[in-house]
Specification:
about 300 residues
Length: about 300
């Protein structure tokens, strides 16, 4: 890894600041690979070796992100608190504060502190909008919209997602548009607005196909599969889920493979159950399946 060689070089030169900065780069690589414990250890080591407070704050945030995805929430919030103390020295730094808000919001959401997560993301979105960074603001608002969907606050979710989409008029960005349209399509699926759901999901799929983002494409295909299942179009629902599984296997994503397999199972079970509604046992399975299918599905966070 080039960054590791840079760490070694600057350590030999006695430049601990540059070495620590490149250690954070090494940590980021492990984070992207899903090696969260290792990423956190390296980021924390970078913190110890840094005297530059700004760089130290960024290292603490990265460590907090890694601890969050490793499920070590107490350690994550400790890191975010350290970063917060330093960030107060830079009240006008939008990059630092939005980075902190977004990372901490994810941790809040994972521990069930939904209101705190929403407040952090709204704070980030406001800072970005005020600076004319509309695309990034839209990302934060979209993620809050999706969280509101999970909380079944559907009207508020629609308002936030529509606002996010409107922001892109000032700063068009296909990937972000696709993500927001996917969120709206999923919302309309859950609120029994199939025509709207179909329109937004199919547009989202077209966008992700156009930009070759298979990871996000899988999410939209799974959401469209759920819509087709609710419309009792089982063959199409099955084909969409199967396409998702093929793509997930192609990109070697364990989590997405699991999502696609679960979707296939739901479609198959629902189809069987609906042909046996004369049986009390199958009727109860159908009821439980319907409840499960109303739970939010896959969605990747861009905070």
């Amino acid at each position: 890894m080039v960054a590791e060689k840079a760490v070694s070089f600057y350590k030999k030169q006695g430049d601990t600041r540059q070495a620590a900065i490149f250690e954070r780069a090494v940590s980021s690589v492990h984070y992207q690979r899903g090696e969260y414990n290792k990423a956190a250890r390296i980021a924390k080591r970078s913190c110890r070796n840094l005297s530059d407070s700004y760089e130290k704050a960024l290292a603490f945030i990265l460590s907090g992100q890694s601890q969050t995805y490793a499920g070590k929430y107490k350690a994550a919030f400790n890191d975010f608190n350290e970063a917060l103390e330093i960030a107060r020295e830079y009240p006008g730094d939008v990059y630092l504060w939005t980075h902190l808000f977004g990372s901490r919001a994810t941790a809040f959401e994972r521990v069930g502190s939904y209101d705190s997560a929403i407040v952090d993301r709204e704070g980030a979105a406001t800072l970005l909008s005020d600076k004319g960074q509309y695309r990034r603001a839209a990302v934060f608002i979209n993620n809050n919209g999706f969280l509101l969907i999970k909380r079944q606050c559907f009207e508020e979710a629609e308002d936030r997602l529509r606002e996010a989409l409107d922001l892109l008029r000032h700063e068009p960005h296909l990937h972000t548009e696709g993500v927001i349209r996917d969120s709206l399509g999923y919302l309309y699926t859950l609120t029994n607005r199939p025509n709207d759901a179909e329109r937004f999901l199919e547009k989202s799929i077209c966008i992700f196909e156009r930009i070759s983002d298979n990871s996000q494409l899988i999410g939209s295909l799974l959401h469209l599969s759920e819509l087709r299942q609710r419309q009792l179009h089982f063959e199409e629902a099955h084909e969409l889920a199967l396409r998702s599984l093929d793509l997930a296997t192609e990109i070697k994503s364990t989590s997405l493979i699991g999502e696609a397999r679960e979707r296939l199972k739901q479609v198959t079970l629902d189809k069987v159950v609906r042909t046996r509604t004369d049986s009390p046992v199958f009727s109860e399975i159908l009821r439980v399946t319907s409840i499960n299918s109303a739970r939010p599905g896959l969605h990747r966070n861009e905070d």
